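seq:
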Amino acid sequence: MTAPRIGVDESDPTPAFEQIRRQITGHIAAGALPVGAKLPPLRQLARDLGIAVGTAAHAYRELEATGLIESRRGGGTRVIALPSPDVAPAYDAEALRAAAAHYADAARGLDAPPQAALDAVIAAFRAGSTDRAH
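struct:
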């Protein structure tokens, strides 16, 4: 099984640590990161995403505070629980609206008709593709 993708969108006003926290929570809720799964070390995650180690650590601390992950010296960081449905929504509606607006601007820049833009989103969604950094 390949590791789920985690990315930071610099055009998103949401802080990077929160973007990471939401994505990891979503991957856990979706089963892409099952209980027992090992998360990347902080330095590796920071390097992969081009962020400060402190930013990655902030995301992990937030996830630990909610009881989803546990970090052990020498043992790494692992998923220890599933999020409860009332605490961890499946998606962030505001972030989704912002992403949709960004995509709509890009589609307009390509002179794509609205239906073609919608069809492209649906096809990409079904394929599970993403252009976000891993």
